[in-house]
Amino acid sequence: MTTPPLLGMRGIVKRYPGVLALDDVNFSLSAGEVHCLVGENGAGKSTLMKILAGAIGKNAGEILIEGRRVEIGTPAASQSLGIGMIYQDFKLVPALTVAENILLGSEPTIPGLPFIDRKAMESTARGALRQLGEEIDVSAIVGDLSVAQRQTVEIAKAISRKVRILALDEPTTSLTEHEIQNLFGVIRRLKAEGVGIIYISHRLEEVFEIGDRVTVLRDGKMVETRAVAEVDRRQLIRWMVGRELENEFPGVHLQRGDETLRLEHVTGGRLKDITLSLHRGEILGLAGLVGAGRSEVARLIFGADRKESGSIFLDGCEINPRSPREAIDLGIGLLTEDRNRYGLIAEMNVRENITLSNLRDLLTGPFISGSKEKGAAMAFVDQLRIKAPSLEVRVESLSGGNRQKVVLARWLHTRSKVLVFDEPTAGIDVGAKYEIYTLVNRLAAEGTGIVMISSDLLELLGMSDRIVVMCEGRVSGELTRSEATQERIMTLATSFRRVGEMPNN
Amino acid sequence: MKNETGSFTLRRFSELGIGAVLVVEFLAFSQLSPYFFTAENLLNVTLQASITAIIAAGMTFVILTAGIDLSVGSVVAFAGIVATGTLKTGIPVTAALPLAIFAGLVVGAFSGSFAGFFITRFNIAPFIVTLALMTVWRGASFVVTEGRPVWELPEAFSVLGTGRLLGVPIPTIIMVIVYLTAHVVLKYTRFGRYVFAVGGNIEAARLAGIRTHRVLTGVYTISGVLSAVSGILLASRMNSGQPNAGIMYELDVIAAVVVGGTSLSGGRGSIVGTFIGAMLIAVLRNGLNLLNVGSYVQQVMVGVVILLAVLLDQFRKR
């Protein structure tokens, strides 16, 4: 080690009340290197990046840039050190043009006048995009661009600020295969120019494709840093989850009963000709890339969206739920993705969130019975072992796993026959995941039909009795538990795509 | 856990806080004016507060859903005119009186449910829809009356606004009934729970099976009906239907709700808070009157109190 690395983070510690989010983490990055950061949700990847971005402070440790110790107290300080961040939810202003976004906050002015020099601005923006090898109209409104294009604009914005360190947080989540290859091209180009790149992803295949080194975080601790060439996938997963895969999921159940839900040639929104069936006591996995239409299937079954044609049958009778209320009355429940936005009422407490969908059962005359309500809520808190100081605390104060259990309690209270779980363990730590899996298995054993949507292939493989794979709004295949492998699922999930094909929206 | 109890006491404190401000006000005015703390004056305060306070109860429901109803003042006028107009149709008083009240209430119910329909069906901001209705009903009031008050009403009609029952003004009694009912509905019925859920997170509420359109239509209907109640009481007190009645009421009403701690972004607040908020402003006005403070200065002071109360609310959120 003669020259110090571009970036060094040493002994980083970050404490939150009751949680050690980062525990003595070391991380380094050389110029022209792609260093991947992997780990489960809650492992501390984002926390580490937020510290680098100046969004939060650290409790201990030091950050060095080219061997020089720096303090990053604010986002502005981070930017002035040449650090750029591309988050999953872009920090662009949708109503402004591409050029205006790229130069936001550093607009060139006409010399001697307080007016923006539009020509200079657009040519700088064009230059930044050209550097990435991308053709985007700099006068286009950002809100009209595709996700991939917006990402390019974000990267161009970073480049125009002369970044030396660029961190990308799950950049491929909403991209098509073609767009991902494009992005990799951009990354390679930046790399060749000596930019150090931190690449965060849960898709391990991407680590092997683009990464030079990889660091694994687990529960806030650094597990390993290795050259990508030295490790294999299995090893990475073991480091990430901290145990052999076999123990990650509770045992198989499989007590398949009669058919309960069937979709026949259902079309609506971007769904085309969906046919699938679900049996009592079965866990049906729904696989596919983001945007394949999995959540849309869930919303359609649940009456949140409407179908245009085709039929849905529940226990042999045709149903046509036109609202979530109707679906709930039929015995269908949906645990939405992003439970904080679509599942929970943050202002309400645990009790109110649990009973919200079935207050009907808790009435005495026209009034909600306080004792009945408490009794019902308490029963679920006990049954699902929800860890909350009391029924009256706001649901916001619970951990991700316990929040998910609160939503689950709500659907158990409505006595759902069919339950759809959309990304049920996103943002939940490993231990709580296992508890959720156990609960899902138990529900299936009791005869509930379960549809499980997940982007985590290991989770689908570990939990499902059968896996239906979707691609671009269609069912592209079905695999039994014994047939299913990650490779087969991925092949089916990308089966309708051709390289060079334009994205649908 | 510690955190939670901490914020719990803080919230409790500020709910007390606004009540405490009211108590301080009481004590101060009792010291400053010998006429303030008398049964007669205090009943007078409630009578003066009743008209806007009744509307504020309905507005609380609306604001809890993160909405707003700007049409209340114009509904006051139009409902009053329709009610007094009914009395002038020549129907015998015994039949005309209940009919007049009913007609007035129908105006409020119609206006509110129409607003609710427009807001939910076409997804237009409540601010815009009720702003339009505010203009529509105000204009309609002048058109129908040709700009002149509806005069010469039967004696019996004025009882509602000016009469007393066991010494208590009838508007005060109606206000108390409205507040008790509103409190019970909000706190102990499914509808009340749904109001909070819709205001807290409308999409999550819909996906939990709440018919959010119905809840929203419901709150605007409540607001319309209670505005009509006030409109009828006001017409009775003035013994005439005035086309310019209730101008700017929406601002007094919203002030009472917000001072009472209900969040304009929805999901948090209470009827008790609104009652305290309405009384706080009414007591302030009454006390300043007794102290011979001019009405211009009063306006300034009321404004300052509203700002201070909202500041208190901000601290509560921290």
Description of the molecule:
The complex is a heterodimer of chains A (505) and B (318). With 505 residues, chain A is of the alpha/beta class. In chain A, helix 4 (118-131) packs across helix 5 and helix 13 packs across helix 14 (400-413). Chain A has a six-stranded mixed sheet with strand order 6-7-8-3-9-10, sandwiched between helices. A six-stranded mixed sheet of chain A has the order 16-19-20-13-21-22, sandwiched between helices. The longest helix of chain A is centred in the middle third of the chain and has 16 residues, at 177-192. The radius of gyration of chain A is 25 Å and the shape is globular. Chain A has helices spanning 45-53, 75-80, 98-102, 118-131, 147-160, 177-192, 204-210, 233-241, 294-301, 324-330, 339-342, 350-355, 370-383, 400-413, 430-445, 457-463, 486-493; strands spanning 7-16, 19-29, 34-38, 60-65, 68-70, 83-86, 165-169, 196-200, 213-218, 221-227, 259-268, 271-279, 283-287, 309-314, 317-319, 332-335, 363-364, 367-368, 418-422, 449-453, 466-471, 474-480. Helix content of chain A is 32%, strand content 25%. With 318 residues, chain B is mostly helical. Chain B has a single domain (14-317), classed as ABC transporter involved in vitamin B12 uptake, BtuC (Orthogonal Bundle), CATH 1.10.3470. Chain B has 13 helices and two strands; from the N terminus they run H-H-H-H-H-H-E-E-H-H-H-H-H-H-H. A two-stranded antiparallel ribbon of chain B has the order 1-2. In chain B, strand 1 (164-165) and strand 2 (168-169) form a beta hairpin. Chain B is globular, with a radius of gyration of 20 Å. Chain B starts with a helix and ends with a helix. The model of chain B is unreliable at 1-8 (pLDDT under 50).
